[in-house]
Amino acid sequence: MQAEKLAYYPFISEASAHVGNLGISLESLLNSRAYRAARARGIERVKEALEGEIKKSPLLGEIQVLSELLSYPFARLLVACVDDQLFTRRYALAEAKATYAFLRNETPDFLLEFGEDFGILADFRDSYFSMHFTDYIRFSNSLKDPTWKLTNRQLRAGKIKITKEEFARLLEEAVRERIEQSFPIPEIPPEVSSFCSPYVSEIKEQFEVQKKNFGATDFGAVEPELFPPCIAHALANVQGGVNLAHSMRFAMTSFLLSVGMSVEEILNLFNVSPDFDAEKTLYQIEHIAGATGNVYKPPACDTMRTYGNCIGKDGLCATISHPLGYYEKRVYIKNKEREREQGKEKENEEKKEVKKGKSRKEQEKEKGKT
């Protein structure tokens, strides 16, 4: 494969071997002026991942090709030094999405060769790919659209028939999985951590801001006692170790994100569930939070009723059509009551001050008479 191609797909085995054959030491990659552009591109690569899209422009000449190729191992060092599982997933997803943008325009022969690097043995005939159902399940398992369910596919002789676009999408998942599983990098040398430290601090700071804003609406401090009955019921079940139906788990998670809870806080809520899987749960929460670029909002009350998730309906429920509307109304009512109470307290204080003033005048009057 040409070096330019390898630069666009730096995580495949051939690209790794090519970089190894260049004989560039880690010290040179970090310190040599010759690789300053590669380091700059590596930093840019990671920062673009923060925004959800790594941009890959046409490469002009050997120098740009080399810088793009070497930017990947440097970017990996930065991600490893950040040492945050959520950020690692975001980075892997961004790399995979950028890859998909190129794969969908590649030839079928290239896609077949690319798939082999991930252990996927597929065929191409009559404008369709076919792959073994075990590979299909492995890489489609995290895709939520019902069309990816095995029950919605034709299975013949152990193989699934898919379009070129779909095959490229599954290869995207293969890339994401490979990059995710390549972390953490064991035993990063102290000199590497020291060199990366200024960049890592900036990346962490930006990511912390993003994590706080994932899907959050400004309702102020989260007040669980004001949640609608359906969400309160789901929370009670989760904290009691009861498994939720998928539809209710989605509704509760999207609601909690929308009112301002963080990904980590929600993950901690689920850790008492009997079937708790930290990695899988974290991925699902991030997905709903918008890690893939699409922030999911909680379903409306009609949808909650359709799935049997409208539980404990009260008088206020009859006046609203969405769980977030219920919470917003409760927050509004509570704030108004607080304002009234504060107004009464202020009025009482003023009355007390007036009485004190009158009392002083009376005392002074009595003194004047004596």
Distance between the termini: 111 Å
> Average pLDDT, to the nearest integer?
87
Number of strands: 4
Overall geometry comes to flat
Total tally of structural domains: 3
- Poorly predicted ranges: 214-218
Strand content: under 5%
Measured as a percent range, the helix fraction is: 55-70%
Structural class from helices and strands?
mainly alpha
Describe this structure in words.
With 370 residues, the chain is mainly alpha-helical. The chain folds into 3 domains: 1-83 and 186-210, no CATH class; 97-182, no CATH class; 214-370. Helices cover 63% and strands 4% of the residues. It is built from 16 helices and 4 strands. It has a 4-stranded antiparallel β-sheet with strand order 1-2-4-3. 29% of the residues are buried. [4Fe-4S] cluster binds at residues 230, 301, 310, 317. Its cofactor is [4Fe-4S] cluster.
